[in-house]
Amino acid sequence: MEISANSKSLTITSSDLTRRELLTVTAVTTGGALIGGQLMPGVISPATAQSAGAATAPLNVVLRVNGTEHRLALDARTTLLDALREHLHLTGSKKGCGLGQCGACTVLMDGKRVKSCLSLAALVEGREITTIEGLAQGEQLHPLQTAFIERDAFQCGYCTSGQIMAGVACIAEGHAGSPQDIRDWMSGNLCRCGAYDHIVAAIQDAARATGSVRGG
Amino acid sequence: MHPFILDRPRDLSAALAFRAQAGRNDAPAEYIAGGTDMVQLLQENVRRPERLVSLAGLLDNRIEVGLQGLRFGAAATMAEVAAHAGVIEQFPVISEALLNSASPQVRNQATMGGNLLQRSRCPYFRDVGYSACNKRAPGSGCAAIGGENRWHAVLGTSENCIAANASDVAVALVALDAAVEVRAAGTQRTVPLIDFYRLPGATPHIETVLEPGEVIAAITMPANPAARRSHYLKVRDRASFEFAVVSAAVALEMDGTRIRQARIALGGVGTKPWRVPRVEAALAGANLDPATLRPAAALAAEGAQGRGHNDFKIELMQRAIVRAVQTAGGRA
User: Fold this and answer.
1) Under DSSP, is residue B218 helix (H, G, I), strand (E, B) or coil?
2) DSSP designation for A132
3) Is the distance from CB of A202 to CB of A150 less than 8 angstroms?
4) Are strands A128-130 and A112-115 parallel, antiparallel or unpaired?
5) Separation of alpha carbons B181 and A197, rounded Å
6) Would the CB atoms of A184 and B239 count as touching at under 8 Å?
7) CB neighbour list of residue A159: distance below 8 Å, 6 or more residues apart
8) Which residues of A touch B11 (CB under 8 A)?
9) From the CA of A85, how many Å to the nearest CA of chain B?
10) Closest approach of chain B CAs to the CA of A55, in angstroms?
11) Could you read off the pLDDT tens digit of each residue along chain B, which spans 332 residues?
12) Cα A192 to Cα A188: distance, rounded to the nearest angstrom
C-alpha cells in the first residue's frame, strides 16, 4: 500500500505503547492525509493479500481513524472494535456484548453509525472511522458531550461513548425531532443503569443547539 | 472465533471462483459482506469456516425504482433501501419492514443480500452449548421441539426443525412477488424469492436453493398496482430492536371500499416467509369490516401446528392479518 510522501502514517502493532504515549504520538501526526482513492475497498495491494494455508498469519491493514492513518498487522479475526481498543489503544469505544446487541461499541464509519464489534477490521480499509476520541475539537467538546454532562445522562458511564456516537448520528440523520423518535432511533444502544430519560433529554438539547431538529 | 483465512478479492469473478471450490452452507468457505450476522455466528462458533471470502465493494448497491418495478443491488444496505424516496412512496411495505428491523447501526452495515441469507434466530441453533440442532449439526436432533419454543414457527415445520425465518423484509418482498438474481462464475439465474427458501424437511441445514459458488447479486420486483397501498405490521416483545413474534405484510388493490386483490405474507410464524394465497382469494371483493376479514384471515391457520409455547401464534397471526389489512386499506 503506497502512501503519499507528505502523509504521516503510524505503524503500530500490539507492542505495549501506553495510552498516554499513544495520544502524544497521534497528536503530533494528526493531519496526515492519503492520496484520494488509494484505500478504496477492492483496491488491495499484493502486500495485503494473504497466502493460503496461513490462517493465523497477520494481515496488513491500514485503518483511518479520527483523521489519522494507522498501519497495523492484525489477525484476520480482529474486529474493528478490537483493533481500536487493543491495537490503537483507543479505549473509549467499549465492548459490551461483542454481538451487536448493546451498542457500546458504536462508532461512525464515513459519517454513519455502525457497531464496530460486527465489522472485521481488515474489511473496513479506506473507510473514515470516527470514535469518541475524535469527536471534540481540541478542548471544545461536541455539543452532545456537553449536553450529556449537563443532563447527567449516565451513571456508570460504560454505555456513554456509544450513546454519544449514536446520538450524534441520530441528530445528523434528522431523527431527533421528538422524544418518541429519539427512543426509536436510539434503540440500538442499551443502558443498564436506565439513564434513558436523561439521554433523550441530552439529545434533544444538542439537536436544538446544533439547529438540526427536523421531522421524523 | 475459529481461525480462518480472509480473502479480499479484487473483483466478483475472483470471489466466485474461491467459493465455488467449497460445499453448501456450513462448508469450509463462506462469504462475508456487511458481516452483521456472519460475525455473530463466528463469535459464537456457530460457523467455523476455514476460509472467509469478502464481497465488500464487489457487488452492485444501486437502487432503481421505475415503471418496470423495483431493483436493488445486493450490496445496498438496509438503511439505504429504507430511506429511498421511491421505495417509501411506491413500496411502503418494504421501507416499513426494514425500519422495523434491527437497529440503526446494523441497518447501516447490513446488506440486502445478507439480510435475505441471515440464519435463524432459534436460540438452540445460536448456542453451541446445545448439542441437538439439526440445522447446525445434521442428525443431532431438535432441542426446540419439546424445549422453549415460544419464538418458533407453526407453519412449514418438520419433525427435524421448527426454526422461524427471521428476516422482516423478506416477508414484504415475498408478498410483492420479488425475485433474486443469483450469480455464479459464468452463469446467472433468477429465482422467485418464495422458492429461494427451502422448507426444513429432513435437511434443515440447507436453507436456500443457493448452490456452492452462487451469490445473490440483486433483488427485483415487478411493478404492482397494490404496492403503494401496502403496510408491514410487526408484533414483538419490545417496541423497537426486536425480532417479530408475528408479522404481516399486506398490499391491497382497492375498488372503492372493496378489496380487488390482496397480497399477504406472514413473518415469525413460518420456517420461511409465508404467503397465504387462500386468505388472499377469500379477501377478493371483501370490504374492510372486521367481521368480513376475520373468517378470511382464519384460513391462514390451515396446517398450522403449535408446539406448546408458540400455540398463541396461530390466533395472533390471524388478528395481525385483520389489523394489517385494515391499516393498508385505510391508506390513500
Assistant:
1) strand
2) G
3) yes
4) unpaired
5) 46
6) yes
7) A94, A96, A102, A103, A104, A189, A190, A191, A192, A193
8) 42
9) 17
10) 5
11) 999 999 999 999 999 987 766 555 556 789 999 999 999 999 999 999 999 999 999 999 999 999 999 999 999 999 999 999 999 999 999 999 999 999 999 999 999 999 999 999 999 999 999 999 999 999 999 999 999 999 999 999 999 999 999 999 999 999 999 999 999 998 999 999 999 999 999 999 999 999 888 999 999 999 999 999 999 999 999 999 999 999 999 999 999 999 999 999 999 999 999 999 999 999 999 999 999 999 999 999 999 999 999 999 999 999 999 999 999 999 76
12) 13
Best of A61, A110, A113 to mutate (most B CBs within 10 Å, chain B): A113
Q: Is A174 on the interface with B (CB under 8 A)?
A: no
Q: Domains of chain A, with CATH numbers?
A: 9-134 (3.10.20.30), 143-209 (1.10.150.120)
**CA B42-B25-B61 angle, 5° bins:** 80
What pTM was estimated for this model as a whole? 0.89
Q: How many CB pairs under 8 A join A and B?
A: 111
**Distance of alpha carbon B296 from its chain centroid, rounded?**
24
Nearest-CA distance B302 → chain A (Å): 35
The residues, any chain, with a CB within 8 Å of residue A36's CB and separated by 6 or more, are none
The ipTM (two decimal places) reads 0.95
Q: Which of residues 125-164 of A touch B (CB under 8 A)?
A: none
B108 CB within 8 Å of a chain A CB: yes
Q: Is B105 on the interface with A (CB under 8 A)?
A: yes
Cα–Cα distance measured from residue A169 to residue A188, given in angstroms and rounded to the nearest whole number: 12
Residue A119: name the closest of A90, A99, A101 by CA.
A99
As beta bridge partners, residue A137 has: A140
Closest CA to B38 of B164, B242, B46: B46
- Residue A7 in grid coordinates: 502523509
Q: Are B142 and B161 in contact (CB under 8 A)?
A: yes
Q: Domains of chain B, with CATH numbers?
A: 5-57 (3.30.43.10), 230-329 (3.30.390.50)
Residues of A in contact with B58 (CB under 8 A): 42
